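Here is one chain, start to finish.
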Amino acid sequence: MGSGSARTRRLTGRLCAGLLAALLCAGAAAAQDCRADRVSFRVQGRAVATFSVEVARTEAERAYGLMNRDRLSPDAGMIFVWPEPVHARFWMKDTRIALDMIFVDPKGIVKRVAADAKPMDLTVIDGGTGIQYVVEIKAGQARALDIGPGAEMQSALIPDRLAAWPCAAR
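Its structure:
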């Protein structure tokens, strides 16, 4: 049993080290997915989409948003962030792309979706009160992905202690 046993121990050790490395890498990859420039949505506990987003935190960034753009990738969007919940009102002034607007509360729960907002329209889109995040994505995607009231958003912008779907859960 001498040399066979030593070889088995070496192989087992390498296998365990490899599995540990894979688990650590998988955990690190999941942690990297939960970043300020990414948002994920889940519906009834099932993850349905992740978007790369530009973050609009300042009043000037929120006012400009996605204006004067000619296209938006299907896996991209913008997240508007307020330091406290607000009564969110939007319009499509100077916005050339049809959008879905997803209005989200401080816990990351979707409260309302304004689907297919028309380019250049000056009609006020009322997202309601208690909104802290608004995600804009290409028109039609919220419906296609079944993102509606009650869906949950995951983002590093939402403190884990408040989040319905915390980053730590990934």
